[in-house]
Amino acid sequence: MSDCIFCKIIKGDIPSQKVYEDELVYAFRDIAPAAPVHVLIVPKEHLCCLNAAKPEHQALLGHILLTAQKLAEDLGVKDDGYRIINNCGENAGQTVFHLHFHLLAGDTFSRLV
Ligand code: 5GP
Ligand code: ZN
């Protein structure tokens, strides 16, 4: 997607603070961190949101969660705890329409659910 900001970050056309990359995903620091650790984990394939995921993306979605766990360990927050958030659609407050998961840690968070 030529006009997608996260596709441009993945391609390196927009600079980012990369935390991790493999053949399926790219992870980088959020530009406006909401916690001491705030990393975005995004699939390299452009999907607008979770609604665009199909059964063929099952392995990718599992890989994203296991990547989150690995990054939590690498960043030293695995044992203290961390939160994974996906905002899907307008009512959830999604602002960038390339599927992504927030990894938040380094603080205590109030519960929404
Ligand atoms: P959403 O609100 O869609 O769940 O999350 C989008 C996130 O992307 C926000 O937390 C926002 O700060 C982050 N973001 C938006 N543009 C950029 C950017 O150009 N670079 C980085 N690193 N993060 C961005
Ligand atoms: Zn994209």
Question: What keyword list fits this structure?
Answer:
113 residues; alpha+beta; five-stranded antiparallel β-sheet; 2 helices; binds guanosine-5'-monophosphate; binds zinc ion
Characterization of this structure:
Helix content is 21%, strand content 22%. It has 113 residues and is of the alpha+beta class. The chain has a five-stranded antiparallel sheet, covered by helices on one side. The longest helix has 17 residues, at 58-74. The model has no long low-confidence stretch (mean pLDDT 97). Zinc ion binds at residues 1, 4, 6-7, 46, 98.
Q: Strand order, biggest sheet?
A: 1-2-3-5-4
Integer average pLDDT:
97
- Rg (C-alpha, Å): 14 Å
Bound compounds: guanosine-5'-monophosphate, zinc ion
Strand content: 15-25%
Number of helices: 2
Q: Tell me the number of strands.
A: 5
Order of helices and strands: HEEEHEE
| Helix percentage | 10-25%
- Quaternary structure of the protein: single chain
Terminus-to-terminus distance: 34 Å
Query: Which structural class do the helices and strands define?
Result: alpha+beta
* Low-confidence region ranges: none
Largest sheet composition: 5 strands, antiparallel
Shape: globular
Short structural description:
The protein is of the alpha+beta class and 113 residues long.
Helix-strand blueprint:
Blueprint: H1 5-11, E1 18-21, E2 25-29, E3 37-43, H2 58-74, E4 82-85, E5 101-105
Antiparallel strand pairs: 1-2, 2-3, 3-5, 4-5
